[in-house]
Amino acid sequence: MESLAGYVYKAASEGRVLTLAALLLNHPEAETRDLLGFVTQLAGQRSTPLIIAARNGHDKVVRLLLDHYRVDTEQTGTVRFDGYVIDGATALWCAAGAGHFDVVRLLVSHHANVNHTTVTNSTPLRAACFDGRVDIVRYLVEHAADIGITNKYNNTCLMIAAYKGHADVVGFLLEHGANPDATAHCGATALHFAAEAGHLDIVQALVRRQAAMVVNGHGMTPLKVAAESCKAEVVELLLAHADCDVASRIEALELLGASFANDRENYDILKTYHYLYLAMLERHRDPARPVPKEPLAPPIEAYGGRSECRTPQELEAIRNNRDVLHMEGLMVRERILGSDNIDVSHPIIYRGAVYADNMEFDQCIKLWLHALRLRQKGSRNTHKDLLRFAQVFSQMVHLKEALRPAAVEQVLGCSVLEIQRSTARMEAAPEAELPQATDNYESNLFTFLYLVCISTKTLCSDEERARINKQIYTLIQLDPRSREGSSLLHLAISSSTPVDDFHTNDVCSFPSAQVTKLLLDCGANVNAVDREGNSPLHVIVQYHRPISDFLTLHAIIISLVEAGAHTDMTNKQQKTPLDRSTTGVSEILLKTQMKMSLKCLAARAVRQHSISYRQQIPSSLEEFVELH
Ligand SMILES: *[C@@H]1O[C@H](CO)[C@@H](O)[C@H](O)[C@H]1NC(C)=O
Ligand SMILES: *[C@@H]1O[C@H](CO)[C@@H](O)[C@H](O)[C@H]1NC(C)=O
């Protein structure tokens, strides 16, 4: 039955209607119903023959299934579209989303529900709006589809069409009563979406319908959104139409110019000057009463320690100085958007990356540190920012560029904070987000170790070293653990600790004798155990490169033993490090290092012979016995 169902599904999926008809011939009714209701899971999709035929546009198959077998049009499945996974989609949703008009017609004429919603509350009409098929949109609306149903973010059909740039669909929806001023959860209107994406014709259509200029959840009007994303034509159009005051006008022009200075896709330094200059003229239109800039914040060192230009003359003076204009742009953006705006940091990071590419590492690090602080102030997830530092630091160490210990220390400090926050995020994560939250948390631990490793290769004074070690000490006190319960020390000596491969692996690798030593110096617990009860010593004796990397193996075992590792500690399987040694080399090293004490021998004897000891010896000794 199951394999027959598989053939039926395959025939429907591939549009082989004769094969399908033959496969369905001469079965009892109940069996046919089962075959056509059977859900096949394939490549992340879960669908029935009808759904997959509709998805793939096989109208003859759909007709056969509907006319002859009266298959339920309301079956739902999980389908993939453009990399999105859609849960709870009907055949009609799939046909509308994939642009198969014939199939849409067939389904609707067989009474498929035009208002059916998926798990995220998307309708077939929304799917057609996304795809930009005005013919299907018109047909659905003519067949009583509800234009007003929003998805679970209160995002309307009009918004998705506006964002995707389907002007004909937008025009049709507006003519048929779509509300141009509806707002989504994020506070955005269709005008925000069209402005951000830079669809001039759609912005025009919305403005003609008197779409309101409102502020979204990030405090941005459509005008500001367009300026922030370098959509100059949209800005000019909105400035001409909207009755905005002088302040908003100036703000939009400044933001637009500033954004052109540091945008990966839209970089255009001439436009930067052009719009900043227009704004400046606007400020000084009435020489008797110029519009001054807001009280300026103290200059930011990362931006070169300058203040923003205040007069057309000051601006003219930097006209041909690109570096200064770039920084002017960053300053203007931070002032207008506010330091906690989510978009402020991207251009800063971009400009830093350009500096790094030109080997101007100090400039890069200053900018990235500034961006990192802004992002941490806004409680954003910074695991990628921290990794980026490990990468650029590694590149510098590798190229023998001078790396300032203070920078390493500051990034270590930020990564301690990020590890605390990612721990909290992990603990608060709903089940579905837990794997991602755990990945982020672990990647922070790894990044921290890269930074520790980099610090061992950085020239420091005693005082600088002490400040770096203090950050390491702080994290060790928090005792963060990986999924497997590995401590920082376990991770530092494990060859399975992943190393990022963009520059980082030129400098960092694990096991690392230097990192082990440093962690121990900073107070790491040498006898900490992971989930399996393995101590760091248990881990290192399984190192699989005992010959080629003998020095590392040797140095780590010595460090651990000197720091007080118990060579006879047992894990959950009652195995000591010696039992777990996988190579003769580590066995010999261990044996020569083992300093068996009478105390240890006695503890082992107590354990081996199950002699009762609880509450008969000092409690500190009880713990000691339990280690053995
Ligand atoms: C879809 O919803 C609209 C608006 O609520 C309603 O008028 C129409 O009858 C519904 N269509 C169907 C086929 O249920
Ligand atoms: C979403 O829209 C519904 C219906 O219009 C409304 O009741 C609700 O408050 C909106 N939710 C948000 C968060 O805007």
Provide a quick synopsis of the model:
ANK repeats lie at residues 45-68, 87-119, 120-152, 153-185, 186-218. The protein is mainly alpha-helical and 628 residues long. Among the domains are: 397-595, Serine Threonine Protein Phosphatase 5, Tetratricopeptide repeat (Alpha Horseshoe); 596-628.
List keywords for this structure.
628 residues; mainly alpha; Serine Threonine Protein Phosphatase 5, Tetratricopeptide repeat; two-stranded antiparallel sheet; 57% helix; flat; binds 2-acetamido-2-deoxy-beta-D-glucopyranose
Description:
The protein has 628 residues and is mainly α. Among the domains are: 397-595, Serine Threonine Protein Phosphatase 5, Tetratricopeptide repeat, CATH 1.25.40.20; 596-628. Helices cover 57% and strands 3% of the residues. It contains 33 helices and 4 strands. The strands form 2 sheets. The chain has a two-stranded antiparallel ribbon. A two-stranded antiparallel sheet has the order 3-4. A hairpin with a 2-residue loop joins β1 (40-42) and β2. It starts with a helix and ends with a helix. The model has no long low-confidence stretch (mean pLDDT 93). The chain binds 2-acetamido-2-deoxy-beta-D-glucopyranose (2 copies).
